Amino acid sequence: MLLFFFMVTTELRKTAVDVMQRIPQATQLRKLQRKSLVTNLYIGEPKKSDQFGTEPKIQAEDVFIEPNDIILWVNREKDKLPENEREQLTVAMKVDSEAKRGIIADVETQLRKANARKILYSTLQKSDKR
Amino acid sequence: MAKSTPEIPNASMADIAFLLLTFFLVTTTMPNDKGLSMQLPPPPEAQPPEDVKIPERNMFKIQVNSSDALLVEGEPMNDVSGLKDMIKKFILNNGVDPKSSDSPEKAIVSLKTDRGTTHKRFVEILDIAQAAYYDIYADQAGVTNEEFRKIASDLNNPENQRLYNKGREGIPMAISIAEPTKAGN
């Protein structure tokens, strides 16, 4: 029973996330409609801080990227989708609680330039009452 | 003559199942595909650098500095629990109070942060602002807040589409997120 539960509800890890992910909590969550249109961007302090320092970094798939690379990355993600759905690409931003707005704003500016304007700040459901 | 069909040894079945179970426990993750959804404004260069003057009364200003302190309409605020009702009152003012908004269509909630503001604080405030809007939409559509958000996530159903439009009628979700100021990065 347990085995089937895990087989059905979980999914295989595609990428190893190398940045801290203490996801903030919120109440007004929206569920994503279609998984295939979603692509993830991870932002946070690197886990291996002796190697990469403690400044928050952006991770796309398996590599760290700079804000300037985002346009290129978005276009590559868009190429994976069928042509009529490219405009609906949603970027799910999984941002660590302690990351600063500065780096996130830089990413948002690049996403605007890349015309990927649907975004989602990934959050957990806040458990206490509103 | 005895049947010669070979039987699968079933003594090890439990072991195999447990092995598989641990395998799935270790290699898989629970998908987390929920969050605060937003629409970014069009690219910076596509917009003409026009200087649109928005009357002071139609702006609900929320500012957060780099030490996560809050300034709402020019007043410092420590406790955010009343903020949602303030925003709701501001949006639904309809010109009654001369210091508050003209109409829900013109009302803008402006959220300005520093580069040093933490993401946690930003999400907290954005959550409150969106909660105010979703509460209003849900009231208009005659459902609860939670139901409205569920409806908004599934617009292929015509009934949902109808409720969604009814909820949002005349009230665009105008949460403006300003470019952060350069302090405390």
Walkthrough of the structure:
The complex is a heterodimer of chains A (130) and B (185). Chain A has 130 residues and is of the alpha/beta class. Chain A has a single domain (14-125), classed as Nucleotidyltransferase, domain 5 (2-Layer Sandwich). Helix content of chain A is 27%, strand content 25%. Chain A is built from 4 helices and 9 strands. Chain A has helices at residues 2-9, 49-52, 70-79, 101-113; strands at 11-12, 25-26, 30-31, 38-44, 57-60, 63-65, 90-95, 118-122, 124-125. A 5-stranded mixed beta sheet of chain A has the order 6-5-4-7-8, covered by helices on one side. In chain A, strand 5 and strand 6 form a beta hairpin. The longest helix of chain A has 13 residues, at 101-113. The mean pLDDT of chain A is 83. Chain B is α/β, with parallel strands linked by helices. Chain B has a domain at 55-177. In chain B, strands 5-4-3-6-7 form a 5-stranded mixed beta sheet, covered by helices on one side. In chain B, strand 3 and strand 4 form a beta hairpin. In chain B, helix 2 packs across helix 3. The model of chain B has no long low-confidence stretch (mean pLDDT 80). Chains A and B meet through helix 1, strand 1, strand 2, strand 3 and strand 7 of A and helix 1, strand 1, strand 2, helix 3 and helix 4 of B. Strand 8 of chain A pairs antiparallel with strand 2 of chain B, so a sheet runs across the interface.
**pLDDT averaged residue by residue of chain B:** 80
User: Largest beta sheet of chain B, briefly?
Assistant: 5 strands, mixed
Count of distinct strands of chain B:
7
Q: SSE order of chain B, as H and E?
A: HEEEEEHEHHHE
Mean pLDDT of chain A: 83
SS-derived structural category of chain B: alpha/beta
